């Protein structure tokens, strides 16, 4: 097989065979095929697209390029939830204990945040003592006995994706549906998921800026999952404004606690139920999505979800008393209000820019090496569609320094007030096949 022939075949819009795709992926991972040929191939894919079969082949070839996590020692259907990334996205913190309370095994491998999106590991580490450095045996024991555990990223998973993604980044081939979909799905499958629930975000804070693009990506990923034997569903959700009210590590833990008590922000609760019911259904713990949702509401009402969160924190060394005493979470020194300068309705809260404002405070990492401050962040006092009076606080800044002028300026620039505005639709679509 020659790489130049494979490039030409894709350039001419023909379907590549399983063997040809594997030749590209393994050859590139092992350094036998140079960057310039894979760049040309990626650009051909960008313009000529891939068939469903090619997409499934590319995904599995990337899975097979490195190690995979074997979760077969865990009983039940392991359902993984994946979000394409957003600002103030507190869903994982809520969903892990929530679905575990219904005996859905949650065996989560989780990373740290970079840029304007926060990582679940960082958020959980704002609970004193909590850690994700678990031995694999301990991780599996915890999931079998308690249905939920989070382990830090380890192992050489999908090296082909790492290399290909870095190349795409510098060759203007990131924004290709087959390449994005196979990249995301390969990582989930390598991490051991039997079934996958996807939260595909759309809007300013998201990778996909339009709902149309988000839908196309969701369909692509659901199709790959189902074609490689992993039941997959997706929710398309709004990320034009941040999710919930809290943006920041400890602040989001507190928001998760409130949501598990049924007292959280309405949008966060709605999205958690939309994703959670798919997880419960795919795990075989309910006969229908409607029944799954009823069960989720029941464990919120009867306190079982909150109880599960306490055990989950304690099992991994965390101080579970924060659940009843959230004031024991790290607290920022200064609270600074950002007032509205006119009467009206909030018409826009640009998610990615507000995420960047939180990062400037120290809530997120500008580079992989940055230290983060778990206490700081933003609390939104208004969401899009809310009425506001001049002088009323739009946002409360939680800071550990007094000089936050640049943060205030960024927030003001990115919250618009108009004479009229409606709340955006949160769940745009549900993709099940
Ligand atoms: N996120 C990924 O993991 N892969 C892509 O290709 C794009 C976004
Ligand atoms: Ca939030």
Automatic annotation (TrEMBL):
One of its GO terms (biological process) is pyrimidine nucleobase metabolic process. It comes from Paenibacillus amylolyticus. It comes from the Bacteria. Belongs to the thymidine/pyrimidine-nucleoside phosphorylase family. This is Pyrimidine-nucleoside phosphorylase. It catalyses: uridine + phosphate = alpha-D-ribose 1-phosphate + uracil; thymidine + phosphate = 2-deoxy-alpha-D-ribose 1-phosphate + thymine; 2'-deoxyuridine + phosphate = 2-deoxy-alpha-D-ribose 1-phosphate + uracil. The keyword Coiled coil applies. GO terms for cellular component: cytosol. The lineage of its organism: Bacteria, Bacillati, Bacillota, Bacilli, Bacillales.
């Amino acid at each position: 097989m020659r790489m130049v022939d494979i490039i030409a075949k894709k350039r001419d819009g023909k379907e590549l065979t399983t063997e040809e795709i594997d030749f590209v992926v393994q050859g590139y991972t092992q350094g036998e095929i140079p960057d310039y040929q894979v760049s040309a191939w990626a650009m051909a894919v960008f313009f000529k697209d891939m068939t469903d079969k090619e997409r499934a082949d590319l995904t599995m070839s990337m899975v097979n390029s490195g190690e995979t996590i074997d979760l077969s020692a865990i009983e039940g259907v392991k359902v993984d939830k994946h979000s394409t990334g957003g600002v103030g996205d507190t869903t994982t913190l809520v969903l892990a204990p929530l679905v575990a309370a219904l005996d859905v095994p949650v065996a989560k491998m989780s990373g740290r945040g970079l840029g304007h999106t926060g990582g679940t590991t960082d958020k959980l580490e704002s609970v004193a003592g909590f850690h994700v450095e678990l031995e694999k045996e301990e991780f599996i024991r915890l999931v079998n006995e308690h249905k939920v555990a989070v382990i830090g990223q380890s192992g050489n998973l999908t090296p082909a994706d790492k290399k290909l993604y870095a190349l795409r980044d510098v060759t203007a081939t990131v924004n290709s549906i087959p390449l994005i979909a196979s990249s995301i799905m390969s990582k989930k499958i390598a991490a051991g998921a039997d079934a996958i629930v996807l939260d595909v975000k759309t809007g300013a804070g998201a990778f996909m800026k339009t709902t149309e693009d988000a839908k196309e990506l969701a369909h692509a990923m659901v199709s790959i999952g189902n074609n490689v034997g992993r039941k997959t569903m997706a929710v398309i959700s709004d990320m034009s404004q941040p999710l919930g009210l809290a943006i920041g590590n400890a602040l989001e833990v507190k928001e998760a606690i409130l949501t598990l008590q049924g007292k959280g922000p309405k949008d966060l609760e709605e999205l958690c139920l939309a994703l959670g019911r798919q997880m419960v259904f795919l795990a075989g713990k309910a006969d229908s999505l409607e029944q799954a949702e009823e069960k989720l509401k029941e464990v919120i009402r009867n306190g079982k979800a909150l109880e599960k969160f306490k055990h989950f924190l304690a099992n991994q060394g965390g101080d579970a008393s924060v659940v009843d005493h959230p004031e024991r979470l790290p607290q920022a020194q200064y609270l600074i209000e950002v007032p509205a300068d006119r009467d009206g309705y909030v018409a826009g809260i640009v998610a990615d820019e507000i995420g960047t404002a939180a990062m400037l405070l120290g809530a997120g990492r500008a580079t992989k090496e940055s230290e983060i401050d778990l206490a700081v962040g933003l609390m939104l006092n208004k969401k899009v569609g809310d009425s506001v009076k001049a002088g009323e606080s739009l946002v409360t800044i939680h800071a550990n320094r007094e000089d936050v002028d640049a943060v205030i300026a960024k927030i003001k620039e990115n919250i618009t007030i108009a004479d009229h505005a409606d709340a955006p639709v949160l769940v745009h679509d549900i993709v099940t096949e």
